[in-house]
Amino acid sequence: MKPPYFWSAGLDPRSREAAPLTRALLTPLAALYTWGIRLKLARAEPPRASIPVICVGNLTVGGVGKTPIVQALRQHIDEKDLQAASLSRGYGGSEISPQKVYPDWHTADMCGDEPLLLAQTGESWIGRDRFAGVQLMSSNGVDVVVMDDGHQNPGVHKDLSLVVIDAAAPFGNGHVLPKGPLREPVTDGLARADAVILMGEGDVPQHVRRSGLPVLRARIVPAAPPPEGPLVAFAGIGRPQKFFDSLAASGGDVRDTVDFPDHHVFSKGDLTHLRRLAEDHGARLITTSKDHVRLQPGDRADILHFPVKAEFEDSHQLDALLNPILYPQDS
C-alpha cells in the first residue's frame, strides 16, 4: 500500500485541510491498536533459543533500510568465522513452515521478496514461527541469527534488539496505526531496544536522545556504479523517491520515474506500460534489487537493477554491541 498523505507530519499540502479531521476520526482506532500491542507484549514470555538472536526492527511501517542492515550485519559476523544467517517472516509468501531459502528454486510468491533478496548474498531462512525457525537453523549449523523485522513480535527472546530509524523521516506524524505510521508508541519501542541505528543524514530525534540508547550511524550506498545511458526507474518499496534520488545522485541518467506501492506485484500491464515509457525516452528500465527479485524470471531479462548496501560509520562501536552477544564467555 501507499502510505496515506496524512501520515507525513504535515509535509503533504493536502494535510492542511483534511488531515486533522481524518486523524481525529482515527484516534479511537489508534488507541485500540496501541492497547492491543501493549497487551500482547505484556503477556508474552518469549522462549530463549539455543543460539544468539539479533533482531533488526523498526517502529514504523514502510522501508527504513532494515534489509541492507541485515545483510551488513550477517556479513560482519561471517567475517568473525561464525555462521550467521538471516530469518524473515516471509511476508507475502505462501510458505508457512520454517525453511532455508534457495534463490535458484524459491520465488518471491513462495517466500517473500526480502528473504529471496537476502538469499542472493548469504544464508537466508523464513519462518512465521520465529522460535521454531531459530531452533531449526541451530540444528543446521547456524551460529547466530540476524532477524529481519520482529521488534513487535514476542515469539522468541532477542539477545540484542536494534531499532532502525530513518533520520530524514523518523516517525511520520508521530501517531500509531492507522492514525499514523507507527507500529507502537515511540517510547514503548525504544524501551525494549538495546541500540538505535540511524540511517542517513539528520539530527538524532529527541525521543532517541531522551532514551539514552547508543546510536549507530549508517547509510545506504551503491554496491556498484549505475549503468550508463538513459534510464527509466521504477520501484515498489516503502519510499520509492529515496531510490530515485540515490540513482540520480550516483550519476544515473534518470529520464523518468514510476512509483508503486510497497511489495507491489507487477502485472503484465504494468510491465507493458513501463516498457513503452522506456521506449518513448530511448531508455532502459531499472529498478531496485528488491523489486527485481519480485519479477517473474521471464520478465527480468531486459530490466536492470541497482544494488545497494549499508555501511556503518563506526565498526568499533558496532563490535562493542555485538561482541558480548557473540562471545559471552569473554564478557
Sketch the topology as an H/E string, one letter per element.
HEHEEHHEHEEHEHEEHEHEHEEH
Strand order of the largest sheet: 3-4-2-5-1-6-7-8-13
Binned strand content: 15-25%
Give the integer mean of the pLDDT values: 93
Euclidean distance between termini CA atoms: 45 Å
Tell me what the CATH architecture of the largest domain is: 3-Layer(aba) Sandwich
The CATH fourth-level homologous superfamily of the largest domain: P-loop containing nucleotide triphosphate hydrolases
Number of helices: 11
**Rounded radius of gyration (Å):** 20 Å
What is the highest CATH level, the class of the largest domain? Alpha Beta
Helix content: 25-40%
How many β-strand stretches? 13
CATH topology of the largest domain: Rossmann fold
Uncertain parts: none
Question: How would a textbook summarize the main sheet?
Answer: 9 strands, mixed
Description:
With 331 residues, this protein is an alpha/beta fold. It folds into two domains: 53-220 and 311-330, P-loop containing nucleotide triphosphate hydrolases (Rossmann fold, 3-Layer(aba) Sandwich), CATH 3.40.50.300; 224-306. It contains eleven helices and 13 strands. It has helices spanning 19-43, 66-78, 108-111, 113-119, 130-139, 186-191, 206-211, 240-249, 268-281, 289-294, 315-326; strands spanning 53-58, 84-88, 99-100, 124-126, 144-148, 160-166, 195-199, 215-222, 230-235, 253-259, 284-288, 303-306, 308-312. The strands form two sheets. The chain has a nine-stranded mixed β-sheet, sandwiched between helices. The chain has a four-stranded parallel β-sheet with strand order 10-9-11-12, sandwiched between helices. Strand 9, helix 8 and strand 10 form a beta-alpha-beta unit. The longest helix is centred in the first third of the chain and has 25 residues, at 19-43. The mean pLDDT is 93.
